[in-house]
Specification:
146 residues; alpha+beta; 5-stranded mixed sheet; 4 helices; 43% helix
Amino acid sequence: MPLIRLTYASVARPGLDYEELTSLLRRAAVRNDELGITGILCFSGNAFLQSLEGRRSDVNRLFLRIAQDTRHTNVELLSCTEIDARDFSDWSMKLVSWEGKLTAQRRALLLRHARTAALEPWTMTASQAHGFLRALAELERQQSAA
């Protein structure tokens, strides 16, 4: 069965806090692991940018649930493509928040890939979004290894 990578952007509902988001992602990581879904989620201010990888049927079902979730709005599919290899195989779901010590490095990656200082994924092309998330994942791997 073919693997796909699906990338989307959305806007967080007002009042969504980091604790609620991390609780949701802990549960999602367990489900994703059971389904063989990997991915990364970048969260900054009110913006989400997420890539999901896995079997087409599993990723499609998950995305349909995500699109109906009331914790965000304006869900916009940026890309969905068949892949030969996963880019985010390290994680059943990796949350990257824009807070903390790596913010300057993350902004530099964003400027390089999207030519903007703020995360506004709905303005990115599919190629920009994927390049940014791949570079962001590599930065996270480097930080974990350090």
